[in-house]
Amino acid sequence: MDHSRISSLDDLNARLWAWIERVYHYTAHSALQGQTPLERYQRDLPRIRTLGTLAPRLDELFYHRIGRKVRRDSTVSYQGERFEVPYELAGRSVRLVVDPHTRRVLGVEDDKGRALGVATPLDAVANGQRKRRKPQPPEAQKPHASTGDDAVELAYRQYHDHTKEEN
Prior knowledge:
It is a single chain. With about 170 residues, the chain is an alpha+beta fold. The chain folds into 3 domains: about 45 residues, no CATH class; about 70 residues, CATH 2.40.50; about 30 residues, no CATH class. The strands form 2 sheets. It has a 4-stranded antiparallel beta sheet, with no helix packed on it. The protein has a 3-stranded antiparallel beta sheet with strand order 2-3-7, with no helix packed on it. The termini are far apart.
């Protein structure tokens, strides 16, 4: 090969692919019992499985899972940063789901791989003045039969009362 003809990395890659497509695939190989790579591929085609429904989620298969214990303030740490996770996970062990390429924390899951929620970067300055309330137990969230309130009305009142407290 005349190296003086290569003008850039793109040019080198184009030449490599041209060689693979025009020469390599059509040259008999002793390791393939005299077959060409193209002939061998075509012979094995009936046994090749596709990714099927996994194809759109292929990147997810390569995410890293890192075990963490959720602090009482519903935060976890990863590489010197803290992340908020759903409050109900406080005290539990979870796995952070991390994209290894971007090093971005995407969420949290349990040890069986079930999603438990998102992990949001903690902004200590913005959260310094934030008032947090523990979630109410399930029985407190049920509609009150005595008042006839349905779940929507009860949730509205709880939200409305909560926003008054903050102002």
